[in-house]
Amino acid sequence: MNTANVVTEQLTAAGRAIEHDSFAIIDAEAGPHAAYSDEQWFIVRRMIHANADFEFNGLTEFHPDAISAGLAAILRGGTAIVADVEMICVGLSATRLAHFGLFTHQFISDADVIVQAKAEATTRAVQAMRKAHRLGLLDNAIIGIGNAPTALIEIVRLIREEDLRPALVIGMPVGFVSAAESKALLAQIDDVPWIGIRGRKGGSTLVVAAIHALLGIAESRQRNAA
């Protein structure tokens, strides 16, 4: 009987060996991580693997319901993953998404988004989130923001002012203007689950890593339930 993940692992034995050796090195060098549960560490470790930056052991924060909410959204199938930039959608494994019936969306370069951003003197990222909301894609979705702090600020506004209820917000925008502030706002949200990073660090690769880690945990849950 198979006791290992198949869909969410590297496709070759050599690739799996390299990845598993990398995780072993991270575990050996990371130092204490008692602040994280086993499943939270599974996510943080993959984020470290994506950037070779051990500061994410400590900078990464989880809403108490983040893991359970993310897994429920993945395992129910048909869940939308809405990203602030195309890089996240491209970085996610199509095979892994298809296994769970997940679909990605991003609108940052849509012509109407650009026109509206210019008309309202806002950013494309803000208008892209508003477009996703108008299309009914954000409620019950996994929202991944790795590039644009203004997108995350808009999501927080929609949660507070328009009763938006995504399944999970993965808020990890990188940068020097409003990045740390946007993530601090996210950390104040109690009624929507989130995963975030304190400070300026972040990036789309980290959002991809976090989602891939959640997919790996979800496959383990599927396999154990079979």
Keywords:
Cbl_synth_CobH/CbiC; 6-stranded mixed beta sheet; precorrin-8X methylmutase activity; Precorrin-8X methylmutase; alpha/beta; cobalamin biosynthesis; 10% strand; Rossmann fold; 6 strands; CobH/CbiC_sf; 11 helices
Question: Concise description?
Answer:
This protein has helices at 13-30, 38-51, 56-59, 66-76, 86-91, 94-100, 111-120, 124-134, 149-161, 179-187, 204-225; strands at 60-62, 80-83, 103-105, 142-145, 168-171, 194-197. With 226 residues, it is of the alpha/beta class.
Q: What is the overall pLDDT average?
A: 93
| Strand fraction | 5-15%
The CATH level-2 architecture is identified as 3-Layer(aba) Sandwich
How many distinct folded domains? 1
Please list the strands of the largest sheet in the order they lie side by side: 1-6-5-4-2-3
Say what oligomer this is: single chain
| Content-based structural category | alpha/beta
- Portion in helices: 55-70%
The CATH homologous superfamily: Cobalamin biosynthesis CobH/CbiC, precorrin-8X methylmutase
How would you describe the overall organization of this protein?
- The protein is of the alpha/beta class.
- It has one domain: 3-Layer(aba) Sandwich (Rossmann fold).
- It is built from 11 helices and 6 strands.
- It has a 6-stranded mixed sheet with strand order 1-6-5-4-2-3, sandwiched between helices.
- Helix 1 packs across helix 2 and helix 9 packs parallel to helix 10.
- The radius of gyration is 17 Å and the shape is globular.
- The chain starts with 12 loop residues before the first helix and ends with a helix.
- One of its GO terms (molecular function) is precorrin-8X methylmutase activity.
- It comes from Rugosibacter aromaticivorans.
- Keywords: Cobalamin biosynthesis, Isomerase.
